[in-house]
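Standup, Tuesday
Yesterday: got the pipeline producing structure tokens again.
Today: sanity-check two examples.
Blockers: none.

Example 1:
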Amino acid sequence: MTSDKKPVAEIIITSILGYGLIFAGVASLLGLTWHIWELYQHPELSIRFAEALKNLPEQETVPFSLLKLGGWQIMLLLLLIAGKVSVWLIESGKRILD
């Protein structure tokens, strides 16, 4: 009969890593929620994003109205990607703790 006990150092390291990943995922989701709420309350922030896109050198021929529409789509895509990465962090932390 062999014992399947893990060394104490391994338990401590995996616990710190697992809880750290979970904390990072939850913190990024909270930050993401705050940014979404700011966009909801102040939709003019998307215009600032579109103006930043217009200042790119290769975007001089695109009309500003198209940049505003494209800016919203790019922002939504970035928010969705950030949310998915946050969920992956939480799931990875949970798997490490199991």
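Example 2:
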Amino acid sequence: MTDEIIMYPKCNPEEFPELFTAHMSAMTTEKLESKSAIAAQLAYRDHQIQTLLKTAAILAGVSETYHKRLFANGEGNATRSV
């Protein structure tokens, strides 16, 4: 058994047919036929996803901090620090 990372696990496009069809159509229309052109689009999409995940993590941290402050006194009353 190797320790290689699998970037493209087998998937079933029938689980998300609208997305699959949209991508196939766009790739055909935009003539994305080479591996390089498709890889560039995947890299761009990965970058967008990473940015969104980082933003979501920041927002989750802010939300958790706010929640802790809101219920810090055990009565559900917001506490303010000046």
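Quick observation on example 2: Residues 35-70 form the longest helix (36 residues). DSSP finds two helices and no strands in the chain.
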